[in-house]
Every structure is written in C-alpha cells, then in structure tokens.
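The instructor's notes for this session suggest beginning with a concrete chain rather than abstract definitions. Hand out the sequence below and ask the class to guess, before any prediction is shown, which regions might be ordered.
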Amino acid sequence: MCNLYTMRKSMAEVAAHFGVKVPSFSNAPEEAYPGTPGTVVREEAGERVMQSMTWGFPLRLKGMSPTAKPKPVNNIADIQKSFWRGLAAKPQWRCLIPLTAFAEAEGPKGAKTRTWFNVRDQPIFAAAGLWRVSDEWGPVYSMVMTDCNEAIRPVHDRMPVLLMPDDYDAWIHGDFDTAVSFQQRCFPDKLIKMTRTDELWVRPRSVMKGVLPLH
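After discussion, reveal the predicted structure:
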C-alpha cells in the first residue's frame, strides 16, 4: 500500500520533465494523502496535460449512511480485476503520477515513522495510475501497485508500479497486455534508494499546514 508520497519540485520543473504546459492552477500540496489533491499527467486530444485531481476513487461501502463521506480507494492491487479492467483497457484512462518520493510506515503501533523511497538519479519520476471523472469529487485517480522488489521488502511487500521516462509512452498508449506487463515486472533493486527517518507517520495537526482534505 502507498498512502503518502511527495512532489517537492515546482510545477514548472514537473511540466518540463513530462513535456507539458504549466497548469494555470494547482491546489496539490507537497505531500499527497488519500482523499487530498495530487498532480496527474494524462493525455487529451493527442497531447499530454497536467492537472490536479483527488487521490482516490470514491467508494461507498454497504451500510454506509447516505450522508457519509465515501472511502478513497487510492491503490489498485490488480488492473485485471473487473473493478479496474474497464478503465485499464482504455489508454485514455491511464495516467502518470509525478512524485519525488513515496513513504511506508515502519515501527511499532503508535510510534510508526516514515521510511522514504525514491529512484536513484531521478529527481522526478512517475507511478502508473488510472483516472476517471466521479460524481462525488470530479476527476479522481488511483495508483497501480505491484509486488515489492528486494530493496523495499524490509519495509513492505507491495510498492507502486514505477515508470522511467522511457516507459511513459508505453504505459499511456500501450494495449492492455502491455499495461498488465508493467504490473507484473519487478522494478530493479539497484534503482531504489531507501531513507529511514524519525518523522512520525501521523504528524500533529500543527505541522500539517496546507494538507487539508477536499471532502
């Protein structure tokens, strides 16, 4: 599972990396959490565009009150499952999720800390994603997950499907079998850098300025 990632570069730097125009507006903070805004690169009319969306597909569980807030489904375990296949099979619903690092929780309950992972020599990289327009939150996206490699295994058994620049077009434009192959491959161990920290996984509200849920 990935429930926290960062984008600590300017919108101009992100736009230059993905070869898109700088968006006129973005409400995405540096740290993205489920149910909050994040930046997505997708294709529209044959061109890549970058925009803010909510991280997580809204899901209403059985028995929920009609007025209760939906649960954000922010990770995709298997794009071959029926819930996701319809989107994954159509390239127009695939997207790139720009990030500078992603985190996993490590340590005892109540005192878990943030362990960060990034791709060596890639100040900006991407995770594979799917997006759609929801009735509840407008444009939303979710991150595709896969089995971890050995570099991440000490902390977690799952990781995002990470994409190098040479992979971007294949993820966006490839057929369904190509999309599935990204989820089935093992990302090279040597490209992952792990940084353990003493940052608390759940931070006090006083240090979470600017990180506010949309819903």
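Then share the key points. The CA atoms of residues 116 and 195 lie 5 Å apart. The mean pLDDT is 93.
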